[in-house]
Amino acid sequence: MTVEHERTSTQGHTRGPAQGQDGGGAAAPRATPVGRAMETIRALREELAALRGSQPVAVVGIGLRAPGGIEDLDGYWQVLASGTDAVRPIPESRRAPFGDAWDEVPHRGGFLDDVLDFDGPFFGVAPREGRSLDPQHRMLLEVVWEALDDAGIPAGRAAAAATGLYVGITGQDYREWMREGPDSYWATGNGHCFSAGRLAHTLGLTGPAMAVDTACSSSLVTVHLARQALRSGECDIAVAGGVNLVLSPHGTALAARTGALSPDGVCRPFDARANGFTRSEGCGIVVLKRLADAVRDGDRVHAVIHGSAVNHDGRASGFTAPNVLAQTRLVERALAEAGLGPADIGHVEAHGTGTSLGDPIEVEALAAAVGRPGGGAPVLLGSAKANLGHTESAAGVLGLIKAVLSLRHRAVPPVPHFTTLNPRIDLSGTGLRIPTALEPWPAGAGTYAGVSSFGMSGTNAHVVLGAPDPVAGAPAVDVRGFEVSARTPAALRAYAARLAARLAGVKDEEYAAFAYTLTHGRTALATRIRVEAPDRHRAAAALTAVAEGAAAPEVREVAAQEAPGFADLPRRVADLPAYPWERRRYAPFDAERPAAG
User: Fold this and answer.
1) Is 481 left (phi over 0), alpha (psi -120 to 50) or beta?
2) Are residues 170 and 394 in contact, defined by beta-carbon separation less than 8 angstroms?
3) How far is 114 from 180, CA to CA, in rounded Å?
4) pLDDT tens sequence across 499-552
5) How many helices (H) and strands (E) are present in the chain, helices listed first?
6) b vs e for 218-245, b when ≥16 Cβ sit within 10 Å of the residue's Cβ?
7) CA distances (Å), 394 to each of 64, 157, 491, in order?
8) Distance (Å, rounded) from C-alpha 245 to C-alpha 134?
9) Residue 272, class by beta-carbon neighbours within 10 Å (0-12 exposed, 13-18 middle, 19+ buried)?
10) Are the CB atoms for 91 and 111 separated by under 8 Å?
11) What is the pTM of this model?
12) By the 8 A CB rule, do 218 and 396 touch?
């Protein structure tokens, strides 16, 4: 008898409660060894599923781009902590091909620099294909690579693992740059699905890969989906986040007709002068693992996600109108998923768009879900949109990254432009407060943070996260050196210069992590060197020589096929400069120019 037959036969003789009680039926069949084994397997599977479902998720890697020249966590925190507003008029270089059409719409925003520039050869993208490729897809390739680097997970290791990919993306402005009819490159270079598909193909990822469009909540929804996939065992590493670029005035014109845009280009969350949001650009990516796996693997943990929830407004007063009851239930569900209560929350990074309708509804929902009607330590509210503008499909994950930094620094940044509370918002008796300067985390307040993101489509998301547990200091180890690689000799020299500068701020006890991250935490590329340096001072001198194109006795070239050295370095992931991309401009009307090498 086969195992499947045994299972089916046993199920076929299962008796109902009445038969067992009145004794009128035949006795239940005796369990066989195979049947007992199947029951044990079933119980173990249920136990494993329960354990996976309750596991927190670790944020082990972060990559980002945001207005104000933000390209790393230190730059982001500097903008946030200082209360800087990074919104500006559209750069003249960005007006093509629409020219004066930008003057007909609000054209202040959180614009990034040089978004048409891209390191195509690094990712194997030919010039013609690069010109047709949506700059949002190009940016995703670079930022996802940087996030994996930050996690100390080389692309090959991510490919070998079960790695899932979740991309929040809404706009398709680049389609309007076509001067001629679309070709196959335009077809595969601009659809939302291809943003995730191209990433998975380029990096060799074989887990779930999908693009998500729920409007402004897209990127936080991807974090929820990634968390669910990790909990169910569908993947062991998850890459999640979103991207947004404003490449055409036409989308801005449509947004302006809804009355949601600020005419003066200033986003004022919670303020009496709030008159709408400002469209902005950005990209944020997080690399996630189950916390137990991250601890087992020696990963550096930026923060821990304890709960998340997604819901919809349902039948509200209007299709795009928020629903206070739905938002309240959303936050309560995320707290329940985390096993936490309102008193555990000390800070909420709100959706906070600066609209006269949305802000009062959101604060009312937060007061109901995490307020302090009986007193207690305050809950500080924030909104990065006051600094960056509304980055739309990237907004949720950039808010999440802000919360990660607030937990790290145990401080909550100010909300720029906030002076007088919106008269439709009542904070009395709620414990909610809006900081106007950088504030230390409130004494006695809950140690967790919540992050909200709401979509114009009605889809809402909320995530609850906390700081990682302290990590014991690692024992001192002898370091013999490290390896550095880049795609080209020019990129290697630029990389060496960045690393030499970083070593100036590295402590002696952190040098082993520096060496490990470069050697084993980043992908080995074609141009590769080995640096024999037992301390950071000699390492800095050797890297400076490489940057200047000079010879150094500590440095030798390494063949591409040679196995990585320094296998005795313990896994410790350090915060290092990002890879130096060799970007060139790619635009449809540059076809007559040599856009890339």
Assistant:
1) left
2) no
3) 24
4) 999 999 999 999 999 999 999 999 999 999 999 999 999 999 999 999 999 999
5) 19, 20
6) bbbbbbbbbbbbbbeebbbbbbbbbbbb
7) 10, 26, 29
8) 10
9) middle
10) yes
11) 0.90
12) yes
